[in-house]
Hints:
The protein is mainly alpha-helical. Helix content is about 80%, strand content about 0%. Strands 1-2 form a two-stranded antiparallel ribbon.
Amino acid sequence: MGKNLLQHVKKGDKRPIILAAVMLAMFMGAVEATIVSTAMPAIVGDLGGFSLYSWVFSGYLLMNSVTVLIYGKLSDLFGRKPVLTFGIIVFLVGSILCGFAGTMNQLIVYRFIQGLGAGAVMPVAMTIVGDIYSKEERAQIQGYLSSVWGISAIIGPALGGIFVEHISWRLVFWVNIPLGILAIILLWLFLNETVEKRKHSIDYFGAILLTVGISSFMLILVEGGVHWAWTSLPILSLSTLSILCFLLFVVVERKASEPIMPFEIWRNRSISIANIVSLTTGMMLIGISSFLPAFVQGVMGKSPTVAGFTLTTMSIGWPIAAALSGKWLLKIGYRDTSLLGGLFLILGSMFFVFMSENSGPFYAASGSFFVGAGMGLSSTAFIVLIQSTVSWQQRGIATASNSFMRNMGNTIGAALLGGILNTRLNSYFRGKDLEGGTLSIDSANMLLDESQRNNLPENVLTVLKNGLTLSLHSVYWVAFALAIISLLLIYFLPKEKE
């Protein structure tokens, strides 16, 4: 137990090349988030289907979340290289298909495929770094890995804006193809591994129950009150299925020899609070990052490039705060550092609650920066807290559980806040009969397509902008509430012993 399964890795000059391959794979996944968020208003403007907006994110995040722990176990069985290669190939296939999507429904299906591959990229890439570098070397290497997120934060929105405005949004999905191919080539040329043959018990049943349970719950959040009444047969059936799957999941996990979610680590107060806060902040983060471009373009009337800029500041604030968090942890402790992060999250979310059509992109970018800073402070403190709370034998599981909870927060948040957005839009447009036609949720598409927007009568444009503003503010109020809940939970973290 505890042995690295990469028994033989060519070191020396080849390790920097392997690290470059790992960073390429990580960059491929990291840039996907910011570049797609920037392009989404243009994609909806082209393909239509504004009511399906949140599913483009939810489908990707769902498959990413529920496969992370499974891929980790598979890499123990079959080695890191084949599992990571498989993940990259599936991700690239999904990316190619997304670029050819002709409808929103097709795009969502292809995003599921993308997410299925993405689940292997981050955890296995991080594991390779742990395998080929010693404990003393990893601290420095983490700086290189963190730079991936900072670079993607700047390049992603910028590329997304350029592609949308001057070429085609389809390139947003295809830009990753050469990166993925190069990463695979470098891995197979320079990473040599010998896998220790030992039997594992993979918790497939637990993974299936979790997938079905979360998927059912997401359907309820997105479609409830929009296409299905809350008391309708589909909602009641999905609710029953979701509850049953979650209950069975708990039973299965307690009996599994290698559970996908080990519950014993949750008995530790610090870990349980850190993980729950990661869930709530994950929900908040996805709501702001997913729908901010829609506000900047649809309500403010700005270009995709400007919308991308407002997201970029969030991801710039994150690594800066993360670097400061490492220093402050030694001076004021993880609890006070996390509390400071929670205050930044509240401050950032307040910007969006009071944002209006005339606020301007710099105002939106400022809110993004503070949210990013809050996430950088708190998430870094949580990782240090969790890893210092458990033994070496549980460190990997405990760290994975925190990542899993943040992914779940992103997944549930995309569905929940997307559902709130659709419900509010549906309610606002109901009964408003303009120009001889009735507005619907998908009428918001016209705000996100510049040519359609410019041809709209003034009264229709006003109603559409007011409806989108009201609906997005509902999302931001929920994000603000989640920030407050996060800060209250952080307060209950145990204080460090003097």
